[in-house]
Write a structure and sequence with these properties.
Number of domains: 1
Number of strands: 8
CATH class: Alpha Beta
Largest sheet: 8 strands, mixed
Structural class: alpha/beta
Shape: globular
CATH architecture: 3-Layer(aba) Sandwich
Strand content: 15-25%
Distance between the termini: 22 Å
């Protein structure tokens, strides 16, 4: 699979999340989320991509310590899962956490090593590490290309929203334009795209279903 970002950016991201894991352990805060409730709510939005299917495979890009697999194994026990993360400490934590789970595999990489039915990513577009809007948008779009290539039935991702309250927005975070990304996905990847912006968080989820 093609690279999703420059080596310098990937190293910065890996170091950031390794430190979060060191500080907070295998918790939502360890992958830079505020709460377990918010994390679980995001997973429910991403899972709408599966349309109630029970037998499928999924690539999870930026899988962290494997929290989405906890969700998958509970709600879709027949699904095959591959977690991909650029942070070696996160990958090792995920492998230890899910040791003996034969339907889950975790690798340290910047892109999936095989195609699955679906591909998802959650939270990896939020912290932009001082990059400009244009630089971060380019990284985001390159990553969407990777999600597209590594899925046969569709992919899903989330972003912080440009419609967040101005007094709560932070300079180190990236707030995407949901309308622009909806248009991009419709024009570039599929005519079947759903924008979810109604689940009471300062973010949105896009589901791209392939014909």
């Amino acid at each position: 699979m093609a690279k999703t970002a420059t080596p310098a950016l990937l190293e910065e991201v890996a170091a950031y999340y390794a430190e979060k894991l060191r500080q907070h352990g295998q918790t939502p805060q360890g992958v830079d989320w505020n709460s377990a409730a918010g994390q679980w709510l995001r997973f429910h939005q991403l899972a709408k991509l599966f349309d109630g299917n029970q037998h499928f495979s999924v690539n999870d890009l930026g899988s962290g310590y494997g929290a989405f697999y906890d969700f998958i194994s509970q709600h879709y026990p027949h699904a095959a899962y591959i977690g991909i993360d650029i942070c070696e400490a996160m990958t090792e934590a995920a492998q230890q956490r899910h040791a003996g789970q034969t339907q889950a595999r975790f690798i340290c990489a910047d892109s999936p090593d095989q195609t699955a039915d679906y591909a998802v990513t959650s939270g990896i577009f939020n912290v932009r590490f001082g990059r400009t809007d244009s630089e971060w948008q380019a990284y985001l779009e390159t990553t969407l290309d990777s999600l597209d290539r590594s899925s046969s039935r569709g992919f899903a991702f989330n972003c912080l929203t440009r419609y967040a309250d101005a007094d709560k927005m932070k300079a180190n975070l990236y707030y995407a334009d949901p309308c622009q990304l909806f248009d991009l996905c419709k024009r570039k990847y599929s005519r079947n795209v759903a924008l979810l912006h109604d689940y009471d968080l300062y973010e949105f989820t896009l589901l791209v279903r392939k014909s």
